[in-house]
Prior knowledge:
65% of the residues lie in helices and 9% in strands. It is mainly α. The chain has one domain. Strands 1-2 form a two-stranded antiparallel sheet. The longest helix is centred in the last third of the chain and has 17 residues, at 69-85. The radius of gyration is 14 Å and the shape is globular. The protein starts with a strand and ends with a helix.
Amino acid sequence: xxxxxxxPRADCGIELYFDEMNVKPQCFRCNxxxxxxxxxxxxxxxxxxxxxxxxxxxxxxxxxxKWSKEYYIQKIKKYQEKLRKL
Length: 86
């Protein structure tokens, strides 16, 4: 499996590059051969999160929201906690 992106870094910048909704496991074929398989990726995101949440992610791409240092610190703590639970 590879880290596939619904919105590629070239289009979304670092703000969405590590976003949990934007990054999902993909096989080599979908991620590389099919260039991310965007239509199917988006369809599955809508099934998992709902249309409104997916649209919000696309709006973040378009507006170029910049996250604060505190935002990233919270993310680090969140993943450290998830690792502890493993």
